[in-house]
């Protein structure tokens, strides 16, 4: 794989989405669309979608892209747009279109892996989690060699409380490539969910990630510091977590996830910070509208309002 693709891919994997887009725009200038530039722009467009910037994702790839890997990102952009509008039927139609792309990509190529990931993500967010896992080839029995798909599958398995299957997939992925960023993140996610001593290993993973020379002391370092702070908070080291989040915000003052977690850390220390935590959660939901966390917060807030109304 070209070194430029690896650089952009690494930032995407580390959730340094703004940095991913900025670097991609330098590495793949307008008017150049060879295979390397295409992959660079695909990762940038995926990063834009992760930030909720649907228009930005489309602008990076162009609306007339014909390559399956680019089409998969543009279709996912359509999916998110329809999801924002509450168009469930439209979301279903887009998922069907995405699924057909699996028939036109060559297995074993990175572009094929990305397409499969996009399909699995759309299926999961459309509510068909079981089909998503089957599409990704991640059911707890191993078999997939596509690390992006395995990572998403592990994330989904943890979300549905199947830590046993998630751990099996992680251990099998580790045998393939234990140096991969994605494999290390799987270990951290499982550690945070499992709790106890496992949170210490999660801390080590995020701490090591934050020291990567490519991102050290830049805004791109902030997401890794947020993960490190979450691990510290899970170990009840709240003052250390607050300090790490302060470091993240010094590098990227606009990082809404760092802001939200900073207030959560404070609220764990003092009940007086709870209103501030609510304000931070509102800020995150506004700036990251398509994220699972924002959607979860919105649904829980509606459920609370309904429960209060029923008791009135």
From TrEMBL:
Subcellular location: Cytoplasmic vesicle, COPI-coated vesicle membrane; Golgi apparatus membrane
InterPro entries: Coatomer_esu, TPR-like_helical_dom_sf
Organism: Malassezia arunalokei
Family to which the UniProt record says this protein belongs: Belongs to the COPE family.
First-listed, main subcellular location of the protein, grouped into a coarse class: membrane
Membrane topology: Peripheral membrane protein
A GO CC term assigned to this protein in UniProt: Golgi membrane
Name by which UniProt lists this protein: Coatomer subunit epsilon
Keywords attached to this entry: Cytoplasm, Cytoplasmic vesicle, ER-Golgi transport, Golgi apparatus, Membrane, Protein transport, Transport
Organism superkingdom: Eukaryota
Gene Ontology MF annotations: structural molecule activity
This protein's record includes keyword Amino-acid biosynthesis: no
GO biological process entries: endoplasmic reticulum to Golgi vesicle-mediated transport; intra-Golgi vesicle-mediated transport; protein transport; retrograde vesicle-mediated transport, Golgi to endoplasmic reticulum
């Amino acid at each position: 794989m070209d070194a430029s693709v690896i650089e952009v891919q690494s930032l995407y994997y580390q959730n340094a989405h703004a940095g991913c887009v900025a670097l991609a725009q330098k590495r793949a200038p307008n008017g150049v669309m060879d295979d390397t530039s295409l992959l660079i722009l695909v990762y940038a467009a995926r990063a834009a979608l992760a930030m909720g910037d649907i228009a930005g994702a489309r602008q990076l790839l162009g609306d007339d892209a014909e390559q399956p890997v680019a089409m998969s990102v543009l279709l996912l952009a359509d999916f998110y747009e329809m999801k924002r509008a509450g168009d469930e039927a439209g979301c279903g139609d887009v998922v069907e279109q995405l699924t057909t792309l699996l028939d036109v990509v060559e297995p074993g190529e990175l572009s094929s892996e990305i397409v499969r990931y996009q399909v699995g993500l759309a299926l999961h967010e459309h509510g068909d989690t079981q089909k998503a896992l089957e599409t990704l080839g991640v059911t707890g029995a191993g078999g997939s060699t596509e690390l992006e798909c395995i990572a998403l599958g592990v994330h989904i398995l943890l979300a549905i409380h199947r830590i046993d299957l998630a751990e099996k997939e992680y251990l099998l992925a580790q045998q393939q490539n234990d140096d991969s960023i994605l494999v290390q993140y799987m270990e951290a996610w499982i550690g945070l969910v499992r709790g106890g001593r496992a949170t210490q290993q999660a801390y080590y993973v995020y701490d090591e990630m934050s020291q990567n020379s490519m991102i050290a002391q830049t805004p791109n370092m902030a997401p890794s510091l947020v993960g490190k702070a979450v691990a510290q908070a899970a170990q009840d080291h709240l003052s250390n977590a607050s300090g790490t989040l302060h470091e993240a915000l010094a590098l990227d003052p606009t990082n809404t996830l760092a802001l939200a977690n900073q207030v959560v850390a404070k609220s764990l220390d003092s009940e007086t910070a709870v209103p501030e935590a609510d304000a931070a959660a509102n800020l995150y939901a506004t700036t990251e509208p398509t994220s699972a966390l924002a959607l979860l917060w919105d649904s829980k807030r509606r459920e609370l309002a309904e429960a209060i109304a029923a008791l009135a």
